[in-house]
Amino acid sequence: MATVGLSGCSLQSQSFSLRSLRKSCRVQGRSRRNVCFTVRAKTENGVVSTSANEATGPDLSVIVNGLRFPNPFVIGSGPPGTNYTVMKRAFDEGWGGVIAKTVSLDSSKVVNVTPRYARLHAPNTKEVIGWENIELISDRPFETMLDDMRRLKQEYPDRILIASVMEEYNRASWEEVIERLEDTGVDALEINFSCPHGMPERRMGMAMGQDCDILGEVCEWINQKATVPVWAKMTPNITDITQPAKRALDAGCEGIAAINTISSVTGINLDTLRPEPCVEGYSTPGGYSSKAVRPIALARVMAIAQMIKREFPNQGLSLSGIGGVETGNDAAEFILLGSNTVQVCTGVMMHGYPLVKKLCSELQSFMSKHGFTSVEDFRGASLEYFTTHTELVRMQKEAVKQRSAVRKGLASDKDWTGEGFVKETETMVSN
Ligand SMILES: Cc1cc2nc3c(=O)[nH]c(=O)nc-3n(C[C@H](O)[C@H](O)[C@H](O)COP(=O)(O)O)c2cc1C
User: Under which EC number(s) is this enzyme classified (predicted)?
Assistant: First the structure.
């Protein structure tokens, strides 16, 4: 492993290029600027609001790719980051960072329909467990979104604002969009390789994210141009999510964000026989989010974290966990699986921007309970408890032998009885 010093910058890497060196220096420069800021921002009426976790308790601040976030909670790209007003609200409520709604150069091609959301409720309750959307990327003019981001960075210079971007398979367009976004002062870029509806019809979003060769090539174009950290946002609608994630990191991205929504059909109205969300009697498959996707998101985040540990050790690459987060404990699970930050989108649409205060205090309670004083104290701590099924069998055989104890549960599938079926199932559940 080589240690390289240049103009006050140093980085460790097994293989590096001038490009990554230039980006790393820029990132480190930014980290110096941001390390000591106090998270305070003026609201419209001049009242000073503080970050959601400024009260006493374990330190929630995280430094990711050289950027300092006051807490790991980041607004995920979507409706909660569509314009200046809502992004400002997020900063004022204390969100650690904001990822703006995805933009592209030509918004005139983006035409949304209404209704574009459909919810899945838990049986016999009003509780929302799943959320489908067929919303496209931002339908606001690119210049308008640039103005919003520039204004936010002027008013909140020390808060983390990340632009989300999607483009067609055209190098010049990517270079233009990146240059103009960076010019607003945004701190990082998130590349949307993952929107599952609408945009793939134009070979964008998920269509790019599912093709490792195209994704790798586009990431190279992006990283040759970008001077701020780049996160690639992955689609879960692929057999092995670690493959595009590795290609993105190989091509110079500093981080991975996962997951975007899961391809879905929320349901069919049994009176009208029409699918939801129903637009003029018709629908199209959409993207699924909220609570129901969390276990799937956790599995994908775990797989990506293992891959980063194995393939890119000690290179400071980051992981942003996304999917169904509504509580501090949900976030703790993503962090235990290696996430540096945790994004929330649908949770904000259901509970509003003040949710961040609850997220922070619940995460702090979890940390206090375990004696963790920083997020890094427990980040990735649960990864080591995953292994193969073959290894579980070997370990259990070994443990039973060592304890000379009667093994819990049935010894063999032949022992199931119809009579005691539920009790027998209970003997093999772990929680
Ligand atoms: C209505 C809606 C619009 C979204 N728009 C975008 C988008 O423009 N760009 C993007 O990268 N992700 C978009 N997403 C995906 C979210 O950022 C997030 O990856 C996903 O919803 C899972 O997280 P959640 O369960 O916290 O919502 C959207 C999600 C929803 C619900």
Answer: 1.3.1.2
Classify residue 204 as left (phi > 0), alpha (psi -120 to 50) or beta.
Answer: beta
pTM for the full predicted model? 0.86
Stretch (H or E) spanning 29: helix 18-34
Task: Tell me the average confidence (pLDDT) per consecutive run of 10 residues in the chain, 431 residues long.
Answer: 31 39 48 33 36 72 98 98 98 98 94 95 94 96 98 97 96 98 98 84 86 96 98 97 98 98 96 97 96 98 98 98 98 98 98 98 98 98 98 95 72 89 88 85
Cα of 295 from ligand 1 centre, angstroms = 16
Q: Is 70 helix (H, G, I), strand (E, B) or coil?
A: coil
- Predicted local distance difference test score (pLDDT) of residue 229: 98
Domains of the chain plus CATH, in order, are 33-385 (3.20.20.70), 396-426 (no CATH)
- The pLDDT assigned to 45 comes to 35
pLDDT of the residue at 404: 61
Q: Which residue has the tokens 């990506």?
A: 304
For ligand 1, what atom is nearest to the CA of residue 348?
26
Q: Give the C-alpha separation, 304 to 284, whole Å.
A: 30
Burial pattern 336-373, b for ≥16 Cβ within 10 A else e, equals: bbbbbbbbbbbbbbeeebebbbebbbbbbebbeeeebe
Write down the residue that tokens 């509580």 correspond to.
327
- Determine the pLDDT at residue 219: 98
| Residue type at 258 in one-letter notation | A
Nearest CA to ligand 1 atom 23: 323
> DSSP string covering 165-234, please?
E---S-HHHHHHHHHHHHTTT-SEEEEE----SSGGGGT-THHHHT-HHHHHHHHHHHHHH--S-EEEEP
Measuring from each residue's beta carbon to the nearest atom of ligand 1, which residues come in under 6 Å? Answer: 76-79, 101-102, 131, 133, 135, 137, 164, 192, 195, 233, 260-261, 289-290, 293, 322-325, 344-347
Which residues participate in catalysis according to the annotation?
A: 195
